[in-house]
Amino acid sequence: TAGASGAANRIGNCDTDSFTVTTPGGKAPPLICGTNTGQHMYVPASDQCNILNGNIGSASTAATSAFTIKVTQIECTSKRAAPSGCTQYFTGDSGTIETYNYNSGNGVLLANQDYSACIRTERTYCAICYWSTSFKMSVP
After folding, report:
1. CA-based angle 69:71:74, to the nearest 5?
2. pLDDT tens digits for 7-30?
3. What is the DSSP pairing of strand 17-21 with strand 52-56?
4. pLDDT of residue 55
5. Do the beta carbons of residue 46 and residue 28 sit within 8 Å?
6. Which of 75, 91, 22, 89 minimizes the C-alpha distance to 30?
7. Does the global pTM surpass 0.85?
8. Given a cut of 80, is residue 103 above it in pLDDT?
9. Residue 5 has pLDDT above 80, yes or no
């Protein structure tokens, strides 16, 4: 039986609600869930059509689940376009890099998050400094 330990092993697996995007002919971005306010995801456009799938499970309610998705098309030659293979692309001379569902430290690390977060080198800058106010890893 799964029991309590089986339930603990499911943390971060997006069993109730999820959001996915297909990328025909390419590597799809990871399946995400949880609170992702302010997050972004670059998806290469496909002639075969990208499909956005928001799945709200039967255990959810309107009070706990909702999607608001902004879609912006970026010209291939634009300086705002992410390099090939980058699911997230950070620009500017400062900012914060957070995993999907970080939710100001209140979320859980999602399972199977195989993607690249890329950072643009800004004009006249020659180095990037990273620091963490909190870095924790644990096994449920």
Report:
1. 155
2. 445 889 998 889 999 999 889 999
3. antiparallel
4. 86
5. no
6. 22
7. no
8. yes
9. no
